[in-house]
Fold NUDIX hydrolase.
Amino acid sequence: MRPPGPTIRTIPDGDDRERLVCGDCGFVVYENPKVIVGAICTWDDRYLLVKRAIEPRLGFWTMPVGYMELGETTEQGAAREVWEEARSRVEIDGLLSIYSIPEISQVHMIYRARMLTPDHAAGAESLDVALLRWDEIPWDHLAYPNVRWSLEYEREMKGQTGFAPRGRPER
Amino acid sequence: MRPPGPTIRTIPDGDDRERLVCGDCGFVVYENPKVIVGAICTWDDRYLLVKRAIEPRLGFWTMPVGYMELGETTEQGAAREVWEEARSRVEIDGLLSIYSIPEISQVHMIYRARMLTPDHAAGAESLDVALLRWDEIPWDHLAYPNVRWSLEYEREMKGQTGFAPRGRPER
Ligand SMILES: [Zn+2]
Ligand SMILES: [Zn+2]
Protein backbone atom coordinates (compact mmCIF):
# COMPACT_ATOMS: atom_id res chain seq x y z
CA MET A 1 0.00 0.00 0.00
CA ARG A 2 1.15 3.49 -0.90
CA PRO A 3 1.59 5.86 2.07
CA PRO A 4 -0.80 8.86 2.12
CA GLY A 5 0.14 12.26 0.68
CA PRO A 6 2.10 13.26 -2.42
CA THR A 7 4.38 10.29 -3.22
CA ILE A 8 4.16 9.93 -7.01
CA ARG A 9 7.00 11.53 -8.95
CA THR A 10 5.73 12.69 -12.35
CA ILE A 11 5.75 15.65 -14.76
CA PRO A 12 2.40 17.49 -14.44
CA ASP A 13 0.68 18.79 -17.62
CA GLY A 14 2.26 22.05 -18.77
CA ASP A 15 5.31 21.62 -16.54
CA ASP A 16 8.85 20.65 -17.54
CA ARG A 17 10.11 19.00 -14.34
CA GLU A 18 9.13 16.08 -12.16
CA ARG A 19 7.07 17.01 -9.11
CA LEU A 20 5.56 15.02 -6.25
CA VAL A 21 1.84 14.41 -6.84
CA CYS A 22 -0.73 12.87 -4.48
CA GLY A 23 -2.46 9.78 -5.87
CA ASP A 24 -5.50 10.36 -3.65
CA CYS A 25 -6.28 14.04 -4.15
CA GLY A 26 -4.04 15.11 -7.05
CA PHE A 27 -2.22 17.84 -5.10
CA VAL A 28 1.09 18.84 -6.74
CA VAL A 29 4.01 19.78 -4.49
CA TYR A 30 6.27 22.49 -5.94
CA GLU A 31 9.45 21.94 -4.00
CA ASN A 32 11.78 24.91 -3.97
CA PRO A 33 15.17 25.57 -2.47
CA LYS A 34 14.98 26.67 1.14
CA VAL A 35 16.59 29.75 2.66
CA ILE A 36 18.49 29.42 5.94
CA VAL A 37 19.27 32.66 7.77
CA GLY A 38 21.58 33.31 10.69
CA ALA A 39 24.03 35.75 12.22
CA ILE A 40 27.49 36.00 13.69
CA CYS A 41 26.73 38.22 16.69
CA THR A 42 29.38 40.08 18.59
CA TRP A 43 29.72 42.07 21.80
CA ASP A 44 33.09 43.82 21.84
CA ASP A 45 35.56 41.05 21.01
CA ARG A 46 33.25 38.21 21.93
CA TYR A 47 31.13 35.92 19.74
CA LEU A 48 27.68 34.52 20.51
CA LEU A 49 27.38 30.77 19.96
CA VAL A 50 24.67 28.25 20.83
CA LYS A 51 24.90 24.52 21.54
CA ARG A 52 22.31 22.66 19.48
CA ALA A 53 19.54 20.88 21.41
CA ILE A 54 18.14 19.19 18.29
CA GLU A 55 19.37 16.85 15.58
CA PRO A 56 21.26 17.04 13.31
CA ARG A 57 24.52 17.83 15.12
CA LEU A 58 22.95 17.81 18.57
CA GLY A 59 25.46 19.02 21.16
CA PHE A 60 27.63 20.89 18.64
CA TRP A 61 28.09 24.65 18.55
CA THR A 62 26.84 27.08 15.90
CA MET A 63 25.87 30.68 15.33
CA PRO A 64 22.08 31.12 15.70
CA VAL A 65 20.64 29.94 12.38
CA GLY A 66 17.46 28.41 10.99
CA TYR A 67 14.82 28.36 8.25
CA MET A 68 13.58 31.69 6.97
CA GLU A 69 9.80 31.92 7.52
CA LEU A 70 7.01 33.43 5.42
CA GLY A 71 6.39 37.16 5.72
CA GLU A 72 9.83 38.29 6.84
CA THR A 73 12.94 39.76 5.22
CA THR A 74 16.21 37.83 5.38
CA GLU A 75 17.48 40.34 7.97
CA GLN A 76 14.33 39.96 10.09
CA GLY A 77 14.68 36.18 9.88
CA ALA A 78 18.28 36.29 11.04
CA ALA A 79 17.38 38.55 14.00
CA ARG A 80 14.43 36.29 14.85
CA GLU A 81 16.67 33.21 14.94
CA VAL A 82 19.11 35.02 17.24
CA TRP A 83 16.24 35.83 19.59
CA GLU A 84 14.71 32.33 19.46
CA GLU A 85 17.96 30.43 19.99
CA ALA A 86 20.10 32.82 22.06
CA ARG A 87 17.62 35.31 23.57
CA SER A 88 19.70 38.22 22.39
CA ARG A 89 18.51 41.40 20.64
CA VAL A 90 20.75 42.45 17.78
CA GLU A 91 21.13 44.97 15.00
CA ILE A 92 21.86 43.32 11.66
CA ASP A 93 24.91 44.93 10.11
CA GLY A 94 25.84 43.55 6.69
CA LEU A 95 25.79 40.22 4.89
CA LEU A 96 28.85 38.07 5.63
CA SER A 97 28.31 34.93 3.64
CA ILE A 98 26.10 33.12 1.16
CA TYR A 99 26.47 29.36 0.91
CA SER A 100 24.54 27.50 -1.76
CA ILE A 101 24.33 23.79 -0.96
CA PRO A 102 22.79 22.36 -4.15
CA GLU A 103 23.04 18.77 -2.85
CA ILE A 104 20.26 19.59 -0.38
CA SER A 105 18.81 22.63 -2.19
CA GLN A 106 19.57 25.14 0.52
CA VAL A 107 20.82 28.73 0.42
CA HIS A 108 22.41 29.92 3.68
CA MET A 109 22.64 33.65 4.28
CA ILE A 110 24.72 34.59 7.33
CA TYR A 111 24.70 38.19 8.53
CA ARG A 112 26.97 40.15 10.82
CA ALA A 113 25.10 41.45 13.86
CA ARG A 114 25.86 43.73 16.78
CA MET A 115 24.39 42.75 20.16
CA LEU A 116 22.47 45.65 21.70
CA THR A 117 23.30 44.40 25.21
CA PRO A 118 25.47 41.49 26.40
CA ASP A 119 22.34 39.65 27.61
CA HIS A 120 21.80 36.14 26.29
CA ALA A 121 20.18 32.85 27.36
CA ALA A 122 19.49 29.46 25.85
CA GLY A 123 16.28 29.26 23.80
CA ALA A 124 14.16 26.13 23.31
CA GLU A 125 16.41 24.75 20.55
CA SER A 126 19.63 25.35 22.49
CA LEU A 127 21.28 23.30 25.24
CA ASP A 128 23.59 26.16 26.09
CA VAL A 129 24.64 29.60 24.90
CA ALA A 130 27.94 31.39 25.36
CA LEU A 131 29.61 34.71 24.62
CA LEU A 132 33.17 33.67 23.86
CA ARG A 133 36.52 35.25 23.10
CA TRP A 134 38.17 34.04 19.88
CA ASP A 135 40.50 31.60 21.68
CA GLU A 136 37.62 30.24 23.76
CA ILE A 137 35.61 29.12 20.70
CA PRO A 138 35.21 25.30 20.68
CA TRP A 139 36.73 24.89 17.20
CA ASP A 140 36.66 21.09 17.39
CA HIS A 141 32.99 21.02 18.33
CA LEU A 142 31.42 23.27 15.69
CA ALA A 143 28.30 21.92 14.01
CA TYR A 144 29.24 22.74 10.40
CA PRO A 145 32.23 24.03 8.39
CA ASN A 146 30.32 27.22 7.57
CA VAL A 147 30.30 28.18 11.26
CA ARG A 148 34.09 28.43 11.13
CA TRP A 149 34.07 30.14 7.71
CA SER A 150 31.62 32.80 8.86
CA LEU A 151 33.45 33.41 12.16
CA GLU A 152 36.75 33.81 10.31
CA TYR A 153 35.26 36.19 7.74
CA GLU A 154 33.61 38.26 10.49
CA ARG A 155 36.99 38.61 12.19
CA GLU A 156 38.75 39.44 8.91
CA MET A 157 36.20 42.17 8.08
CA LYS A 158 36.11 43.68 11.59
CA GLY A 159 35.65 47.45 11.32
CA GLN A 160 35.04 47.29 7.58
CA THR A 161 31.77 47.89 5.76
CA GLY A 162 30.62 47.59 2.17
CA PHE A 163 32.37 44.28 1.50
CA ALA A 164 31.06 41.47 -0.70
CA PRO A 165 29.57 38.40 0.96
CA ARG A 166 31.81 35.36 0.69
CA GLY A 167 30.78 31.90 -0.51
CA ARG A 168 32.18 28.45 0.13
CA PRO A 169 35.97 28.36 -0.08
CA GLU A 170 37.23 26.88 -3.38
CA ARG A 171 38.05 23.21 -3.06
CA MET B 1 -17.75 20.77 -0.93
CA ARG B 2 -14.13 21.38 -0.08
CA PRO B 3 -11.76 21.44 -3.09
CA PRO B 4 -9.16 18.62 -3.14
CA GLY B 5 -5.63 18.99 -1.74
CA PRO B 6 -4.32 20.85 1.32
CA THR B 7 -6.88 23.56 2.10
CA ILE B 8 -7.25 23.45 5.91
CA ARG B 9 -5.20 26.04 7.81
CA THR B 10 -4.22 24.64 11.23
CA ILE B 11 -1.25 24.23 13.58
CA PRO B 12 0.03 20.62 13.30
CA ASP B 13 1.09 18.77 16.47
CA GLY B 14 4.55 19.82 17.60
CA ASP B 15 4.59 22.86 15.34
CA ASP B 16 4.20 26.53 16.28
CA ARG B 17 2.76 28.00 13.08
CA GLU B 18 -0.31 27.48 10.94
CA ARG B 19 0.23 25.23 7.91
CA LEU B 20 -2.00 24.03 5.08
CA VAL B 21 -3.18 20.46 5.73
CA CYS B 22 -5.14 18.13 3.42
CA GLY B 23 -8.44 16.92 4.89
CA ASP B 24 -8.36 13.80 2.70
CA CYS B 25 -4.86 12.44 3.16
CA GLY B 26 -3.41 14.52 6.02
CA PHE B 27 -0.46 15.88 4.02
CA VAL B 28 1.09 19.00 5.60
CA VAL B 29 2.46 21.73 3.30
CA TYR B 30 5.48 23.53 4.71
CA GLU B 31 5.45 26.75 2.74
CA ASN B 32 8.75 28.57 2.67
CA PRO B 33 9.94 31.80 1.11
CA LYS B 34 10.96 31.40 -2.51
CA VAL B 35 14.25 32.45 -4.07
CA ILE B 36 14.19 34.35 -7.36
CA VAL B 37 17.50 34.56 -9.24
CA GLY B 38 18.48 36.69 -12.19
CA ALA B 39 21.28 38.68 -13.76
CA ILE B 40 22.11 42.04 -15.28
CA CYS B 41 24.13 40.88 -18.29
CA THR B 42 26.40 43.17 -20.25
CA TRP B 43 28.37 43.13 -23.50
CA ASP B 44 30.68 46.16 -23.56
CA ASP B 45 28.38 49.06 -22.75
CA ARG B 46 25.16 47.25 -23.62
CA TYR B 47 22.58 45.58 -21.38
CA LEU B 48 20.60 42.41 -22.10
CA LEU B 49 16.86 42.75 -21.51
CA VAL B 50 13.92 40.49 -22.31
CA LYS B 51 10.27 41.33 -22.98
CA ARG B 52 8.02 39.12 -20.88
CA ALA B 53 5.79 36.66 -22.77
CA ILE B 54 3.92 35.61 -19.62
CA GLU B 55 1.88 37.24 -16.89
CA PRO B 56 2.39 39.11 -14.65
CA ARG B 57 3.70 42.16 -16.50
CA LEU B 58 3.35 40.58 -19.94
CA GLY B 59 4.95 42.82 -22.57
CA PHE B 60 7.19 44.67 -20.11
CA TRP B 61 10.98 44.49 -20.04
CA THR B 62 13.18 42.88 -17.39
CA MET B 63 16.57 41.32 -16.86
CA PRO B 64 16.37 37.51 -17.19
CA VAL B 65 15.01 36.31 -13.82
CA GLY B 66 12.96 33.44 -12.38
CA TYR B 67 12.51 30.88 -9.63
CA MET B 68 15.60 29.10 -8.36
CA GLU B 69 15.18 25.35 -8.87
CA LEU B 70 16.24 22.36 -6.75
CA GLY B 71 19.81 21.12 -7.09
CA GLU B 72 21.47 24.32 -8.25
CA THR B 73 23.46 27.15 -6.68
CA THR B 74 22.11 30.70 -6.86
CA GLU B 75 24.75 31.51 -9.50
CA GLN B 76 23.83 28.44 -11.57
CA GLY B 77 20.17 29.40 -11.31
CA ALA B 78 20.87 32.94 -12.52
CA ALA B 79 22.92 31.65 -15.50
CA ARG B 80 20.18 29.11 -16.30
CA GLU B 81 17.52 31.82 -16.37
CA VAL B 82 19.68 33.90 -18.73
CA TRP B 83 19.99 30.91 -21.05
CA GLU B 84 16.28 30.00 -20.87
CA GLU B 85 14.95 33.52 -21.42
CA ALA B 86 17.64 35.20 -23.54
CA ARG B 87 19.65 32.32 -25.04
CA SER B 88 22.89 33.89 -23.90
CA ARG B 89 25.83 32.20 -22.19
CA VAL B 90 27.29 34.26 -19.35
CA GLU B 91 29.85 34.23 -16.60
CA ILE B 92 28.39 35.27 -13.26
CA ASP B 93 30.52 38.03 -11.74
CA GLY B 94 29.34 39.20 -8.33
CA LEU B 95 26.07 39.74 -6.51
CA LEU B 96 24.46 43.12 -7.28
CA SER B 97 21.31 43.12 -5.24
CA ILE B 98 19.18 41.28 -2.72
CA TYR B 99 15.53 42.26 -2.43
CA SER B 100 13.41 40.71 0.28
CA ILE B 101 9.70 41.11 -0.50
CA PRO B 102 8.07 39.87 2.74
CA GLU B 103 4.57 40.70 1.47
CA ILE B 104 4.88 37.79 -0.98
CA SER B 105 7.64 35.87 0.83
CA GLN B 106 10.23 36.18 -1.91
CA VAL B 107 13.97 36.82 -1.87
CA HIS B 108 15.36 38.17 -5.16
CA MET B 109 19.08 37.76 -5.79
CA ILE B 110 20.32 39.62 -8.88
CA TYR B 111 23.85 38.97 -10.11
CA ARG B 112 26.14 40.86 -12.44
CA ALA B 113 27.08 38.76 -15.47
CA ARG B 114 29.41 39.10 -18.42
CA MET B 115 28.15 37.78 -21.77
CA LEU B 116 30.66 35.38 -23.32
CA THR B 117 29.55 36.37 -26.83
CA PRO B 118 27.02 38.99 -28.05
CA ASP B 119 24.69 36.18 -29.17
CA HIS B 120 21.16 36.26 -27.82
CA ALA B 121 17.64 35.22 -28.82
CA ALA B 122 14.17 35.12 -27.29
CA GLY B 123 13.48 32.02 -25.18
CA ALA B 124 10.04 30.46 -24.66
CA GLU B 125 9.07 32.93 -21.91
CA SER B 126 10.20 35.99 -23.88
CA LEU B 127 8.42 37.93 -26.64
CA ASP B 128 11.62 39.71 -27.54
CA VAL B 129 15.21 40.18 -26.39
CA ALA B 130 17.52 43.15 -26.92
CA LEU B 131 21.06 44.24 -26.23
CA LEU B 132 20.65 47.93 -25.49
CA ARG B 133 22.78 50.98 -24.80
CA TRP B 134 21.92 52.85 -21.59
CA ASP B 135 19.87 55.51 -23.39
CA GLU B 136 18.02 52.89 -25.42
CA ILE B 137 16.63 51.13 -22.34
CA PRO B 138 12.79 51.38 -22.28
CA TRP B 139 12.69 52.99 -18.81
CA ASP B 140 8.93 53.56 -18.97
CA HIS B 141 8.23 49.93 -19.85
CA LEU B 142 10.21 48.03 -17.22
CA ALA B 143 8.37 45.19 -15.49
CA TYR B 144 9.38 46.01 -11.89
CA PRO B 145 11.17 48.76 -9.93
CA ASN B 146 14.01 46.36 -9.12
CA VAL B 147 14.91 46.14 -12.82
CA ARG B 148 15.78 49.83 -12.75
CA TRP B 149 17.51 49.57 -9.33
CA SER B 150 19.70 46.70 -10.48
CA LEU B 151 20.58 48.34 -13.80
CA GLU B 152 21.54 51.55 -11.99
CA TYR B 153 23.67 49.71 -9.42
CA GLU B 154 25.41 47.71 -12.17
CA ARG B 155 26.30 50.94 -13.90
CA GLU B 156 27.44 52.60 -10.67
CA MET B 157 29.71 49.63 -9.83
CA LYS B 158 31.16 49.26 -13.35
CA GLY B 159 34.81 48.18 -13.10
CA GLN B 160 34.58 47.64 -9.36
CA THR B 161 34.63 44.34 -7.50
CA GLY B 162 34.20 43.29 -3.89
CA PHE B 163 31.22 45.58 -3.22
CA ALA B 164 28.26 44.79 -0.99
CA PRO B 165 24.97 43.81 -2.61
CA ARG B 166 22.35 46.53 -2.33
CA GLY B 167 18.78 46.10 -1.08
CA ARG B 168 15.61 48.06 -1.71
CA PRO B 169 16.15 51.82 -1.54
CA GLU B 170 14.95 53.33 1.75
CA ARG B 171 11.48 54.79 1.49
ZN1 LIG C 1 -3.62 13.76 -1.18
ZN1 LIG D 1 -4.76 15.08 0.22
In short: Chain A touches chain B through 38 residues (CB under 8 Å). Chain A has two domains: 1-30, 34-156. The beta strands of chain A are 6-10, 19-22, 28-29, 34-43, 46-52, 61-62, 65-67, 90-101, 106-115, 126-133.
